[in-house]
Amino acid sequence: MIFPLIGNEKIRLSVENFVFQKRIPHAILIEGDYGTGKHTLANFLANSAVCAGQNPPCGICNNCKLFTANSHPDITVISPLEGKKNIAVKQIRDLRQEAYIKPHQAGKRVFIIDCADTMNSESQNALLKVLEEPPRTVMFILIAESKAAMLDTIISRCVVLGLTAPEFLKGVEYLSRNTQYEPDLIEEALKSSQNNIGKAVEILKGELGTETEIAANEFLNAMLKNDSLGMLTAVSKFEKNRIAADKFIKDLKYSVVQRIKKDTGSYFAKPLTEVYNLLPEYEQKLITNINLNLLFCSLTCKASQIFGGKNDRSYIG
Ligand SMILES: [Zn+2]
After folding, report:
1. Which residues touch 11 (CB under 8 Å, ≥6 apart)?
2. Which residues of 41-61 are buried (b: 16+ CB within 10 A; e: fewer)?
3. Which of 17, 96, 155, 313 lies at a 20 to 30 A Cα distance from 280?
4. CB atoms within 10 A of CB 178
5. SS3 letters for 36-105?
6. Three-state SS at 113
7. Using an 8 Å Cβ cutoff, are 50 and 61 in contact?
8. How far is the CA of 54 from the centre of ligand 1 (A)?
9. Domain range for residue 256?
10. Is the pTM of this model over 0.70?
11. What is the mean pLDDT of residues 6-32?
């Protein structure tokens, strides 16, 4: 089977290298934005780790067949339980116990920890104990959008594979080959998603919103992390387009309201409401001849003050 990701050449080389030599590291942390192929890569690695064939993943051995049927007994996936935002420490303690049980079928047991960045420090410390001295037959694949929330002690024990969106033309080529959509639709979707293949596919399927809706969500997420640069990046493409800027503010209002509804009672509710109350003022300003760059800087600055500047702490942390 060939390496499943496009772009990410350096990662391709190292992954192919250790898979080919059957020397897959015992702990790998895959980091990347939503839609960059983290799960695709994790599956490729997990499948390679359990494959008994000459060129893993061979796709024909019994282990590969079980893997493809999603029923390999030596592969365990852990993620936050339904309705929860974080992986619970009990899940990690259970994992730790299981890690010392011999593989049922393959040479290795693989534990995939999805949303690893949702582990609190207690869970991470629990994981650390087994990462420090892992049984020889165990492999861990941690998946995270950002390793920023993870302990250095965990990160230092993992081989970190950071995935990024591919170049525009590679994305076009890939989607043209693998989907039925018209070339101009593919190009538009890739531009809207900043070359993010996963998001582009969702746009093409109509599952994701327009460019301004996506930017509004990016702005909102950056705001929750009090990440001013992230907020400015999200709006930067509308600096020369007054109609898109107006649409963006409206979409942001909608996204903020949805978020408040989802998180009623959480500590996000109050600052989000403050931001929401600011937005009509910006809609009004758009009717005047205001410089859009200044308008977005002012919005980012006020959102930053609301989300952390005031008491010098971010709402996520
Ligand atoms: Zn195989």
Report:
1. 5, 41, 161, 162, 163
2. bbbbbbbbbbbeeeebbeeeb
3. 313
4. 11
5. CCHHHHHHHHHHHHHCCCCCCCCCCCHHHHHHHCCCCCCEEEECCCCCCCCCCHHHHHHHHHHHCCCCCC
6. strand
7. no
8. 8
9. 209-309
10. no
11. 91
Q: Which long-range contacts (CB under 8 A, 24 or more apart) does 256-262 make?
A: 256/220, 259/220
Question: Is residue 216, in this structure, part of any structural domain at all?
Answer: yes
C-beta separation of 27 from 140 below 8 A: yes
User: Residue 61 C-alpha to ligand 1 middle, in angstroms?
Assistant: 4
Cα 57 to averaged position of ligand 1 atoms, centre (Å): 5
- CA of 17 from ligand 1 middle (Å) equals 17
Rounded CA-CA distance 275/184 in Å is 36
CATH of residue 66: 3.40.50.300
pLDDT in tens, 161-184: 999 988 999 999 999 988 888 888
pLDDT of residue 208 exceeding 70: no
Query: 115 and 230: one domain?
Result: no
Does 238 share its domain with 291? yes
Q: How far is the CA of 277 from the centre of ligand 1 (A)?
A: 57
Residues in the chain: 317
> pLDDT tens digit string along 145-162?
999 989 999 999 999 999
